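User: Structure tokens for both sequences below?

Assistant:
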Amino acid sequence: MTSGNPEGFSYRTRKSGDVEILHFGKPAGLLREMEAVKFLSKAQGADELTLQHLMARVTGNYKRGNERNTAAHQRNR
């Protein structure tokens, strides 16, 4: 069973100032202008787990509520 923590996210800043979010090396999101500035300010002092959560949230790949438990549901067996 997994812990439910996001993993595999990374980011890079483009010359234009945009921030590209990657998930296991594949593009998962792009932040432009003010969104990129806000993200970079939050990411600057964050530890790795907090940074992973932040990137998961901005890409929409963040499991909420009981979505973590769906693998155990009878219809998914």
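Moving on to the next sequence.
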Amino acid sequence: MTPTSEDLLAEATRLHSAADFKKCMKAAEKARKKFQKEGRVDRAIEALRIMGDCVVNTHELKKAEKLYNKLLEEGLSISNKWYQAAAYWGLGQVSFRKMDYRNAAKLFEKGLELAKSVADKWYTAWNALGLALALRGLARLTEAKPLLQEAMALFKELGQSSAQSWAEKAVKEIGGEMEVESDTADEIRIWLCPLCGSKFKENQVSSLKSGKTTTCDYCGTTAG
């Protein structure tokens, strides 16, 4: 039996949870095409969201940026702030993985505002975490800490134990860091994993500074 569009989307969601991002992308892409043929715009956009989340996890940043910009465009076309919040989170991730903390902070902040405007806990939590980590990377620690605490509480409520532990870890580490405020544009003070916020080691920072990628020892996320 030929799988339906919903079957394909469910399979993509399962594969994403299993971190099989290559297969997830293929299933989500097939689902999107089927939804488009069926004229189901909202479900086609959901498939697009999953496509973006798969690609950013395989560190195909140019492709991810293109998909999230498309998600933002389509979210705007149907006046859906939830998809817009999702798109800004994804675009924030792209900038963060390029170690552009300043731009990432701006994008996560937009996503956070949109998520809060529709009382969505999921993207409020993820955008709050992203914004907090970007601010921490810029050594704006007093601004980062309450956002981490907000994200931590929401992740606990949502049953996202891994994300909750990342936020908790970052809060503890901030307590031992000396805050150094800087007005210097684009200056990176602390080199962090874009997903869990763990500090990169000196050899990893050297790789990033030389334009190479590195992988977080804590959660396996690629940056650079």
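User: Anything stand out in the second?

Assistant: DSSP finds ten helices and two strands in the chain.
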